[in-house]
Design goal:
alpha+beta, 4-stranded antiparallel sheet, 3-stranded antiparallel sheet, 7 strands
Length: about 140
Amino acid sequence: MFDRLEIRVSRPGPRFAAQLRFWVNGEDVVEATVREGGRGPYAADVLPVGQPGLLRATSEACRLELGEPECTGSCCGFLTVVVQRSGDIVQWSNWEVPWKVTHTPAPPPPEFHFDASQYDAEVARAEADQSWRVHP
């Protein structure tokens, strides 16, 4: 059975630009690992207009930054994962978690295995939805 990915974009607020959140099997991966107050990456960085987004999976393994604690990733580290496509499967593995989120770091999430067609469709949907962009 495959895992299921949902990408959500938070609206920009007074302190931060729009951010991405990654829900796998109904659970917010950033909140579960980085804890409350953690942030996802900025949507504009991961979903650039007119260019392939960073979430696209290829046969070449790529480490992606998916979140950081409230204090910032440069202080305590980032939540990162290696994304790689192997045939009809996209795998998220080799997690690195922020090391100073609390006194005891959260365990890394498990490996996730997505059906490549569902994964590609969700990434394409997130790339196409530009409703979060602020237009002057």
